[in-house]
Specification:
The structure holds two protein chains of two kinds. In chain A, about 45% of the residues lie in helices and about 10% in strands. By secondary structure, chain A is an alpha/beta fold. The N and C termini of chain A lie far apart (about 55 Å). The chains are: A alpha/beta, B alpha+beta.
């Protein structure tokens, strides 16, 4: 195996010409060997290896993957069928990492799902794909057909005596579908409202059966862990979390993009070496490290390693690992208004603090941005952030929405006050 | 009435779920693929076909961003209005489209050629500002690039 494949296992096969990796090239590069290997393994042994690898969920929450799988009831008494769902509903604003994996190397996801299904003894799977990812949809459909034709999906896969039926579900679009239980409701043909937990999906999920929902990037790591082992996987990382991470940068930087790097690469290295730093004449003011629903960090945090624990220690979250950069010619109030508009619009309406609080916050921010704000408004915004804190809503949408808002009030308070004092947006009128 | 072709395609989707009503979103997508949008009549027909109520189907149809409950033009333009696009020039692209097409969001051009809609983050933040026309994604937009792209759609 090439050095590149051992350092950047998730993206090493992705073709520079933008075409997808077909099944022949995939297998020539060692693809589906891990699935064959897994068919000879006891399901519990796969779970143990994934636990040992310190792989944590790449969708944003960072829950240990092996631990999650261990909650699924197994054995002859377990309810059937059991389900495995790939969350390919990449709708977190500023996030474009799973697109790369889905368009570039769909067989890697399928192989990861075959192995994960073996580990939890699931016989049915869905790839839940957002509707706007039309190119990914065509390529996944092709990859599924290729894998079925070779007997890797369907009945008696790899001659193992077990079945795994995998289906592509194309969503009709709503941010709530990315929330685990909202996604399950959407797959059942309903509105993507969240469900109360417990029961957790691992015990009672899709159609009331044990279900694992896992982010695309998480699943794509599985074949490599099985093939090369947990120790190797942990060694890819610079911190305690295992593996590499797809990091992205968007905003007014020289080279916006997405790169697979060791887990724990610092913000500075990602921003300066890979994204090329700020565009000429612009200064960094802050960044959301892992998508729209993460707290702002600022220049003082540039040396923070991007892993789950370190970013949390700095007061934010790794989230999806795709950062959104705020420059000094962009209005922080306008940016937070844009984010809050998104969350208010995408709220499913199930919990009052969320639908009422976020639309209220949006109105207040719009007033401040247009020069009609008052100093008391800042206290009202802080009050709303407290009202939507974790524990007050069924799901993480509203607490996530509060993250950029509460941190903007902390780091950019002077800018909010200036809008109110001058009764205008200093950025808008300057342009 | 659902056409025989629509019924067949919806049945194919139903086969992949343990219950008929689970194919609700797929059924809405099938009907919209053939007709461009989902009418009140189609909502009732889908409900009957899946063994659920029109209210239930309508609550689903109106929940999802990509289902149209009103007629649309021959092509649907979706402009990303989320944060990364906003930072690098979404407002300029939006204003250019409004002026060029003489429509506001939610409206269709007089010749029925384009419907203009906002859309949440398209996951093309490295190519912002971005938009989709029908199934095609376009990034790194400038007003000039937008003009050239629009020419491709009749």
């Amino acid at each position: 195996m090439s050095e590149l494949a051992m350092e950047r296992p998730l993206t090493a096969r992705i073709r520079p010409d933008g075409e997808m990796v077909g099944i022949e090239d995939y297998e020539r590069a060692g693809g589906y060997q891990a699935a064959r290997q897994a068919m000879q393994m006891e399901p519990r042994a796969i779970v143990e290896e994934v636990k040992k690898s310190n792989l944590r969920g790449r969708g944003g929450a960072g829950f240990p993957t092996g631990l999650k799988w261990s909650f699924v009831p197994v054995g002859p008494e377990a309810p059937r069928p059991k389900y495995l769902v790939a969350n390919a509903d990449e709708m977190e604003p500023g996030t474009f990492k799973d697109r790369l994996l889905l368009e570039g190397d769909p067989h890697q996801l399928i192989e990861g799902m075959i192995i994960a299904a073996r580990a939890i003894e699931a016989e049915r799977g869905y790839i839940f794909l957002r509707g706007e990812y039309t190119l990914a949809a065509r390529r996944i459909a092709r990859a599924l057909a290729e894998a079925e034709a070779r007997g890797y999906l369907g009945r008696n896969i790899f001659g193992s005596g077990t079945d795994f039926h995998l289906r592509l579900h194309i969503s009709a679009g709503r941010y709530m579908c990315g929330e685990e239980t909202g996604l399950l409701n959407a797959l059942e043909g309903k509105r993507a409202n969240p469900r109360a937990k417990p029961p957790y999906p691992q015990v009672s999920g899709l159609f009331g059966k044990p279900t694992i929902v896992q982010n695309v990037e998480t699943l794509c790591n599985i074949p490599h862990i099985v093939r090369h082992g947990a120790d190797w996987f942990r060694g890819l990382s610079r911190t305690a979390d295992g593996g590499t991470k797809l990091y992205g940068v968007s905003g007014r930087v020289r080279r916006p993009g997405c790169w697979e790097l060791p887990m724990g690469t610092t913000i500075r290295e990602i921003l300066e070496e890979h994204a090329g730093g700020m565009r000429d004449g612009l200064r960094l003011r802050g960044l959301l490290p892992g998508g729209a629903s993460t707290d702002f960090l600022t220049e003082q945090h540039l040396d923070v390693p991007m892993d789950f624990n370190e970013v949390a220690r700095a007061g934010s979250r790794l989230g999806t690992g795709t950062m959104i950069v705020l420059d000094d010619r962009t209005c922080p109030v306008g940016m937070v208004l844009n984010l809050t508009h998104f969350f208010a619009q995408e709220s499913c309406g199930w919990c009052t603090p969320c639908w009422s609080g976020l639309s209220w916050a949006e109105q207040i921010l719009a007033a401040i941005e247009s020069g009609d704000g008052h100093l008391e408004d800042l206290e009202r915004l802080e009050h709303i952030c407290r009202m939507v804190a974790p524990g007050n809503t069924f799901c993480a949408l509203a607490p996530g929405a509060a993250e950029p808002l509460q941190s903007a009030l902390k780091y950019f308070r002077e800018d909010f006050e200036r809008h109110i004092r001058e009764r205008r947006c200093p950025w808008r009128n300057a342009q | 009435m659902l056409t025989p072709e629509e019924q067949k395609e919806i049945e194919e989707e139903i086969a992949h779920y343990p219950e008929r009503r689970a194919a609700c979103i797929d059924a809405l997508r099938v009907v919209q693929k053939h007709r461009g949008w989902v009418s009140d009549e189609a909502v009732a027909d889908i409900a009957a076909f899946l063994g659920t109520t029109p209210d239930e189907v309508d609550s689903v149809a109106t929940f999802y961003n990509l289902i149209h409950r009103r007629p649309v033009g021959r092509h649907v333009i979706r402009v990303c209005d989320s944060v990364s696009c906003w930072i690098v020039g979404y407002e300029q692209i939006r204003d250019h489209l409004r002026q060029r097409l003489q429509v506001e969001f939610g409206q269709t051009t007089a010749d029925g050629r384009f419907t203009l809609l906002p859309i949440v983050c398209l996951g093309a933040c490295d190519r912002a500002p971005a938009m989709m026309i029908d199934e095609d994604l376009y990034g790194n937009l400038t007003p000039e690039a937008v003009d050239a792209i629009l020419e491709r759609y009749e």
